[in-house]
Amino acid sequence: MRTVVFDLDGTLADTSADLIAAANACFEARGLGRPLDPVGDALIAFHGGRAMLRAGYARLNEARAEDLIEADYRPLLDHYAAHICVETRLYPGAAEAVEALRGQGYATAICTNKPEYLARDLVAQLGVAGLFGALIGADTLPVRKPDPAPYRAAVAGVGGDAARSILIGDTVTDRETARAAGVPCALVTFGPEGRGIERLAPEALLEHYGDLPELAGRFLPD
Fold first, then answer.
1. Reported pTM
2. What is the DSSP letter of 109?
3. Model confidence at 211, in pLDDT bands (50, 70, 90)?
4. Which residues are catalytic?
């Protein structure tokens, strides 16, 4: 079965504002203000909780940064879990494109480096959980992307064949995952990097979700 596997943050949904808010809540709890900007630091948000904390403490010139990052990581996740879908929105046309793929006989899955329980909650709140036959998170397996095992598990979870699959993502992690799995990769250009993502030389660029069915058909002919 032809399978399209999606990353979640920065690919299906713009989650950056809620992620940044969770990190800033940790800094505020220590009386340090809000050093991260929800727009300017969106790209940092898509690299995970520790990356956001590290960036914030670097700006604050905090000598105990590494200890504080570990201390704040769980509170960050807890705050994010409680406010996971305040500003988060699906990218325009994402749900419709996935529905179109499924109507054409494709299997669809999510492979994300977000903890699985958070990813499942988010797609449920966004109303799209039913559009994906499998969801593999950062902690579903002992390894995470860019190791190819989570990607292969996502494909297997919908009864697909990795040899007839493609990964849709938005970061170097997705590019490296696809390379490790030996599958083509399309990177979106509507994330924080814009067309700068072209530097990673993916097999394709996805300008907007209306192009996805044609793109998938090109790499995975019937």
1. 0.95
2. E
3. very high
4. 7
